[in-house]
Write a structure and sequence with these properties.
With about 220 residues, this protein is of the alpha/beta class. Helix content is about 20%, strand content about 20%. A seven-stranded mixed β-sheet has the order 3-2-1-4-5-7-6, covered by helices on one side. The longest helix has 16 residues.
Length: about 220
């Protein structure tokens, strides 16, 4: 008897479950995007380098934050932009963010970044989002983000050498256990860029890898 291959659960359902069941931590009364979005040792250096980049532009940028989560990161960046567009796939999370965070230059949208048309802008922020997606889903996103001048990408990757872009099913987990991580410049993504610069790196304790932020300048 042939064993049926289990189909991946839709990403929207996966992300809804993560927040509803608090699989990234937090309490039962609110949404929580995990320690990677709340640990000061991780987020403070990140905010410093991103704010520095944003402030180098005489004309403030329009920033699209894809996978904004509970907005504990984005709320510190809005004042350094002309417009800040925060996107997430979880509808209830977007409603919560709209109620908590209200600024003249801030907008929230509930979108599936793999399927929906993305808002126009100058700069994309993808902070520890792609690492949860399958290669097929990442390819869909990569085709869209090349329309932006700047891509600020943060990924959790192994220490030392690793095999990039081993495939996974979109969901809570990442490629770390396979000694892999996302590298958009490598196959199957082959992102074409004009320039790149590593903005920051945080080494996690207990050999749990590193969180690296890189800015890519598109053609």
């Amino acid at each position: 008897m042939t064993k049926k291959t289990k189909k991946p659960w839709p990403t929207k359902n996966v992300m809804n479950q993560i927040y509803e069941m608090h699989l990234w931590g937090g309490n039962q009364f609110d949404f929580y995007s995990g320690t990677g979005s709340h640990n000061p040792k991780i987020i403070d250096p990140y905010l410093k380098v991103v704010i520095t980049f944003l402030e180098t532009h005489k004309k403030p940028l329009v920033v699209c934050d894809l996978g904004c989560g509970d907005f504990n990161i984005g709320k510190h960046l809005t004042k350094h932009t002309r417009k800040y567009i925060a996107v997430d796939i979880v509808e209830n999370l977007i409603h919560r963010n709209k109620n908590l965070h209200q600024e003249d230059n801030l907008a929230f949208y509930c979108l599936d970044i793999t399927k929906d048309v993305l808002p126009p802008g100058d700069c994309i922020i993808l902070r520890q989002v792609l690492q949860h997606l399958s290669n097929n889903d990442i390819e869909k996103v990569v085709k869209k983000i090349t329309a932006y001048k700047y891509i600020i990408l943060t990924e959790h990757i192994p220490l030392g050498n690793f095999v990039p872009n081993k495939d996974i099913i979109s969901g809570q987990g990442i490629r770390l256990k396979q000694n892999s991580g996302v590298n958009l410049l490598e196959p199957p993504f082959n992102l074409k860029i004009k320039d790149q610069q590593q903005l920051g790196e945080y080494i996690l304790e207990n050999n749990k890898g590193r969180i690296v932020t890189t800015i890519y300048k598109a053609f």
